[in-house]
Amino acid sequence: MTSHPTSSHPRAAIILAAGQGTRMKSPLPKVLHPVGGRAMLDHAIDAAEALHCERIVVVVGAHSPEVRDHVVKRLGEDAIAVQDPPLGTGHAVRAAEAVLGDFVGQVVITYGDVPLLRAADIEPVFADHEGVTVIGFEARDPGAYGRLVTRDGELLAITEAKEASPEVLAITACNSGVMAAPVGLLFELLGEVKNDNAKGEYYLTDVVELARERGEPTRAVFASEDSVMGVNAQSELAQAEALFQKVQRDAFLAAGVTMPAPDTVHFAWDTEVGGGTHIEPFVVFGPGAKVAPGARIRSFSHIEGATVATGAEVGPYARLRPGAALGEKVKIGNFVEVKNVKMAAGAKANHLAYLGDGEVGAKANIGAGTIFCNYDGFFKHRTVVGEGAFVGSNTSLVAPVTIGAGAMVGSGSVITSDVAPGDLALARAPQTAKTGWAAKFMDMMRAKKAAKG
Length: 453
Ligand code: UD1
Ligand code: MG
Prior knowledge:
Layout: E1 11-17, E2 34-35, E3 38-39, H1 40-50, E4 55-61, H2 65-75, E5 80-83, H3 89-94, H4 97-100, E6 106-111, H5 119-122, E7 132-138, E8 147-151, E9 154-159, H6 166-169, E10 173-182, H7 183-192, H8 207-213, E11 218-222, H9 234-254, E12 272-273, E13 278-279, E14 284-285, E15 290-291, E16 296-297, E17 302-303, E18 307-308, E19 313-314, E20 319-320, E21 325-326, E22 331-343, E23 348-360, E24 365-366, E25 371-373, E26 383-385, E27 390-391, E28 396-398, E29 401-403, E30 408-409, E31 414-415, E32 424-425, H10 437-452
Parallel strand pairs: 1-4, 1-6, 4-5, 7-11, 12-15, 13-16, 14-17, 15-18, 16-19, 17-20, 18-21, 19-22, 20-22, 21-22, 22-23, 23-24, 23-26, 24-27, 25-28, 26-29, 27-30, 28-31, 30-32
Antiparallel strand pairs: 2-3, 6-10, 7-10, 8-9
Uridine-diphosphate-N-acetylglucosamine binds near residues 86, 87 and 89.
């Protein structure tokens, strides 16, 4: 449970996202790369919001207007601080000072490239309202991380690996980078930070020793190494994704979802699946999917921005796109694509169809190969199929068009005007028969072939 900050202890977050991210080797800025279908930066903002931070400032570099635009869209102009040029983590935090203005309270510093850190992991840094608190972790391979130098459980300093003695390098307790302090203290200390170090940067980590010199309390709280992992390269993005998926799968299994091969099922950050739903191997959920309890999602289906009700069956090889809303006991079979179509209870489209923009009434049956022709090259139009209607195979429904309740459409029809309830519509060339023609033709051809030898 997240405790709510009292009004006497307001919270703010400064999210650092000014790094270049060159090791990603991607035209997309690093922090906009997705984990679970959501930009890493949005995961960091989600955590800050879940912590009830009343101010959130994202420090962006001058080199990535896309990051700036992304933040402005979600949080507004007031959330932007620009660090130009980047001169270290301490310098980055200082860039947010003016933007925080007259804010009074606790500030937590987090990172746009640390996507797995949840509000619950960060919450302990707010337990004290004075001094400096950092989140540490026990590193399997401490490598280049800053080391937490402690004595009797007290945090004395954070020493960057490049500045560390062999003795300090042997410490496995490392700095995650996340830190909290009262806003006034934080910026006073940062004002004293110098760049006379191995990297020539202003280190945020120097505030620990500076705080101690003033007799301010300093301490570390600990989180798991996985939760604080930072992403610098594509391989680490893939690792973060794997950890994220593991958490999602375990949560769904614990919630009663049947998944015989969970490692082959891919969830988005906001996927909802009810207990008792059966998800077969190799199913992918994009953002915005909600599946009720007791549905079945068969193998190789892709579901994004869609809702699936109890008793509905999807796939194998089905694609549900945004706005697909399947009612109870709806059946969507193989190679059927549904986009922005509401299907009422018991409606079926079992094979090879495109249903885009419209609605299908209860128990209506859409035959194999049916296409909702929703786009005229300029505008999208709706197709409405009434309750209990039967649309024969290989039908083109040219929207806007309505098939009335209980109506039937003959196979192979191209329907361009509305069909009244209860009518049969046929819109195809009438069939003709030439008596005996085929038999005569085949005899003639066989004779020709025989004459050729
Ligand atoms: C930092 C910590 C180190 C910690 C490690 C955890 C410092 C001095 N060191 O080291 O103790 O173990 O993170 O990963 O803080 N950034 C900016 N502007 C800058 C510099 C950095 O926004 O001028 C952002 C980066 O985008 C990145 C984060 O701050 O997200 C960390 O910066 P990085 O240069 O990776 O710091 P490290 O040397 O890894
Ligand atoms: Mg780093």
